[in-house]
Amino acid sequence: MKLSLTHKLLAQMPLSTDELQVLLGSAEALRRAAAAGIEQPLLRGKNIAVLCNQADCAAAEAFTRAATRLGARVARISPDTALQRGEADAERDTARLLGRLYDAVECDELPDEVVHRLQRSIGVPVYNGLARRDHPLQRQLPAEADPDYVLQALLVATLA
Question: What predicted TM-score, i.e. pTM, was given to this entire model?
Answer without folding.
Answer: 0.87
